[in-house]
Design a protein that fits this description.
This protein is α/β, with parallel strands linked by helices and 577 residues long. It is 44% helix and 12% strand. α1 crosses α3, α11 runs parallel beside α13 and α18 crosses α19. It is globular and about 80 Å long.
């Protein structure tokens, strides 16, 4: 970490907030944006701050960050043997109505900002909290989706004429951002900060007590509260599992965090995973963490992108929740549906973390399948599912779309569906409607609940960004009766698209950006010309296109071919492509 600027009046505060910012940035947590504002404010503030609570006057520092700073400062003073200074009374005591100073002359502690009842900011706070409960902490909602969720909670219209723009309820969004209760992404999407979630929870409690919530919103907020309580019970600072606690070190534990359900959390681990998973022969069944049968509940996790509107949510509730299926909506990095095992609160293994089971569902409508074949997402998604090493993959192609099939070609679609089953080993399902897909999910959940026995979770120390699929397949080959799982942290970090890539992997992805270059062809070119410079020099030499066109694809008699070689030459050597 870089040293604080010499002219900073509060170098300790800046150092600690910078550490928290770096931790949040590495985890890609949304708090990084608020912490970044706090760093900038501390760098520019010219006066010395003796008490952490005084820092709330700076932009980006709310009550939560001030509390963390206060605890950190108290620990530092204790370690240095410095006595805690007595906070002086306000220099200008507050006057009473008679003009006399108030008794004691004490300055009031800063109060948390709560939007005025039924104002635009009030409605926007509740609307953002709805999306937080439905889609998770990392979902940023666009204005077009947010406004309908907010309208029942304000008397001020969101849509007004241009001449009355100053009366729009949307102006409350600026207030929420100024008070650090909301943040935006890309200028057009919005989400709550940690402080915003805390305030929204308190507002919802008041509205529930006053019976001012609609039935649908009341059920949603109640379900969120239950998930929060369940995940809080399952979370513990110490565990015999070789996983990760919620944060690391004194900086992370200094402040009571907002309770979040597992369904709404991204990986909270500050510990990084290694690049390579453990070698297959190094992991035995005794090295895995055992979850005994009956000590956990099976929960269906639904990708938040699968729930597009309240109609989808109602359909999911009708077909799943009302049939006794426990489900959570959260962003999924691989697959559209999967199952999580959560230790029961009453079991002796309740301190173990949630784990992802070895079953996943990838769902596509027929028109989406045709589009993914055309733009290459089809192969990339299959490769990521294969790399994650799931034992059972259901590939659901929903409905029919003759027009989309005709545009792509019936032979191409049939070939793709055949590869799904023969090459990839997926189980192809073709339900006619979304309702039929939900029934399939309910039946699979019931089957898992009735047939799963002991689970064996691969500890995070054995999981790396590469080789997870090979590791799981090797363990299954030696122990075919074992039901394997990985922690939710490992799934989020290792299986995501944003894992760190080596230079060679970036080079191969650049090759695959050219239409017609598959993974095996990119590997063939990359093994002959290991760097972009070597490839460019080969093209610049006489006969370069012919030599590259003659490269054989490993394990086959196929070659790159002259047409694809010329396309590669244009991509790497032309001024524009």
């Amino acid at each position: 970490m870089s040293e604080p600027a010499a002219e900073c009046a509060n170098p300790l505060f800046l150092e600690w907030v910078t550490e928290w910012y770096e931790e949040a940035r590495k985890r890609n947590a949304k708090t990084q944006y608020t912490l970044k504002k706090a760093c900038t404010s501390l760098e520019r503030y010219p006066l010395r701050i003796e008490h952490a609570q005084d820092a709330v006057q700076l932009q980006g520092i709310g009550q939560g960050i001030a509390e963390r700073l206060g605890k950190k400062l108290a620990s530092w003073r204790k370690a240095q043997g410095i006595a805690e200074p007595v906070r002086a009374a306000s220099a200008e005591p507050r006057a009473t109505s008679s003009g006399e100073p108030a008794a004691g002359g004490r300055a009031r502690a800063p109060r948390a900002y709560v939007p005025r009842y039924r104002s635009g900011a009030f409605a926007l706070l509740l609307g953002l909290f709805k999306t937080y409960c439905l889609y998770g902490a990392d979902y940023f909602v666009p204005k077009s989706e947010l406004v309908p969720l907010c309208e029942p909670y304000t008397d001020t219209p969101f849509h007004v004429s241009s001449g009355a723009a100053q009366q729009s309820a949307w102006l409350g969004m600026k207030t929420l951002e100024t008070k650090a209760l909301a943040e935006r992404q890309g200028g057009v999407k919005f989400s709550l900060t940690d402080e915003g979630v805390e305030i929204a929870q308190k507002v919802v409690e008041v509205l529930r007590a006053r019976n001012e919530l609609s039935d649908e919103d009341g059920r949603m907020f109640a379900a969120f509260a239950e998930r929060t309580a369940a995940s809080e019970d399952a979370r513990s600072p110490s565990s015999d599992y070789d996983g990760f606690a919620d944060g690391a070190g004194p900086a992370a534990s200094a402040r009571p965090r907002t309770a979040r359900p597992v369904a709404a959390s991204r990986s909270s681990s500050a510990v990084s995973f290694s690049r390579q998973s453990s070698a297959a022969g190094q992991v035995e069944l005794a090295d895995l963490t055992r979850y005994p049968a009956g000590s956990y509940d099976v929960i269906l996790a639904v990708d938040s992108r699968e729930v597009h509107n309240t109609g989808d949510r109602a359909l999911i509730e009708q077909e799943l929740e009302k049939q006794g299926v426990r489900l959570e909506i959260r962003p999924l990095v691989v697959g559209d549906y999967l199952w999580i095992a959560r230790p029961r609160a009453a079991a002796e293994h309740r301190r173990l973390p949630d784990v992802v089971l070895d079953v996943v569902v990838e769902r596509k409508r027929m028109d989406d399948l045709c589009a993914s074949i055309r733009d290459g997402r089809y192969r990339e998604q299959h490769a990521r599912i294969h790399a994650a090493g799931f034992a059972t993959v259901f590939y659901v192609v929903e409905g029919s779309d003759p027009d989309a099939v005709a545009r792509l070609g019936e032979a191409a679609v049939s070939s793709a569906l055949s590869r799904v089953q023969i090459t990839n080993g997926f189980h192809l399902k073709q339900p006619p409607t979304f309702e039929a897909t939900l029934r399939l999910l309910r039946q699979t959940t019931e089957l898992l609940q009735s047939t799963l026995g002991d689970l064996y979770a691969i500890p995070d120390r054995h999981v790396g960004h590469h080789g997870l699929g090979g590791l799981k397949r090797s363990v299954r080959a030696r122990h075919p009766q074992a039901h394997l799982a990985i922690s939710v942290d490992a799934y989020d970090v290792v299986c995501g698209k944003s894992t760190t890539l080596s230079v060679g992997e970036v080079y191969l992805r650049m090759l695959m950006a050219v239409r017609g270059v598959s993974a095996d062809k990119a590997l063939a070119v990359g093994s002959r010309f290991p760097t972009p410079l070597a490839l460019v020099r080969a093209f610049e030499a006489d006969g370069g296109v012919g030599r590259i066109g003659d490269i054989a694809v490993d394990g086959t008699s196929r070659k790159i071919g002259p047409a694809l070689a010329r396309r590669l030459e244009q991509f790497w050597t032309a001024d524009s492509f």
